[in-house]
Amino acid sequence: MNLLAISGSVRSGSYNLALLRAMKERCPEDVSVRVYDQIKEIPIFDPEIIDSDTPDSVRSLISMIRESDGVIISTPEYAHGVPGALKNALDWLVSSDALILKPMRVTSVSTSGLGGVRSHSPLLLILSAMNTNVVVEGSMNVPYAQRKFDENMNLTDDFTKKAIKTSLLAMQLAIENA
């Protein structure tokens, strides 16, 4: 099983990116996780661009999504919602069939006590409008990130490590039963 893990953050020191990397390190033997951290390279969505002029960064993302069995998005919360860079990337994907019925799971990591939960609901609405197969089981919201990662962005929290295992198993089951 091949999963694409998309970070909704543009920061290189992002806790969401660190969580995806921790997932990659802890995935079962029969699961592969590819971390996508180039969301800032996607230009602003322009609905007037026709297929033949689609930017290479967008074509690459679409290709990675098509090659995957499922997609995990881990995103911060900005102003009680989805970060602009992530929403922009999703706007590019609306006219593509790459995400249709693709199993997807949403995760959010935050330094606040809510764990980025306010980005979760809007993102689920966007993904359902895109006709994805949102896997609710195994979704994660990780609060107080600064307490769960060390200075090198390595996951140190045992509970979060267990949650990753549960989350990946839920995704694996959803893909197998799709």
Task: Explain the overall architecture.
The structure is a single chain. This protein has about 180 residues and is of the alpha/beta class. The protein has one domain: Rossmann fold. Strands 1, 2, 3, 4, 5 and 6 form a 6-stranded parallel β-sheet that branches. Strand 3, helix 3 and strand 4 form a beta-alpha-beta unit. The longest helix is centred in the C-terminal third of the chain and has 19 residues. The chain is globular and about 45 Å long. About 35% of the residues are buried.
Radius of gyration: 15 Å
Unreliable stretches: none
Alpha plus pi helix count:
5
Q: What percent of residues adopt helix (DSSP H or I)?
A: 25-40%
Overall pLDDT metric: 93
CATH fold call = Rossmann fold
| CATH class type | Alpha Beta
Distance between the first and last residues' Cα: 13 Å
CATH architecture: 3-Layer(aba) Sandwich
Strand content: 15-25%
Any descriptors?
Rossmann fold, 6-stranded parallel beta sheet, 5 helices, 16% strand, globular
Draw up the topology in text:
Blueprint: E1 2-7, H1 15-26, E2 32-36, H2 56-67, E3 70-74, H3 84-93, E4 103-109, H4 117-129, E5 133-134, E6 140-142, H5 158-176
Parallel strand pairs: 1-2, 1-3, 3-4, 4-5, 4-6
Write a brief caption for the model.
This protein has five helices and six strands; from the N terminus they run βαβαβαβαββα.
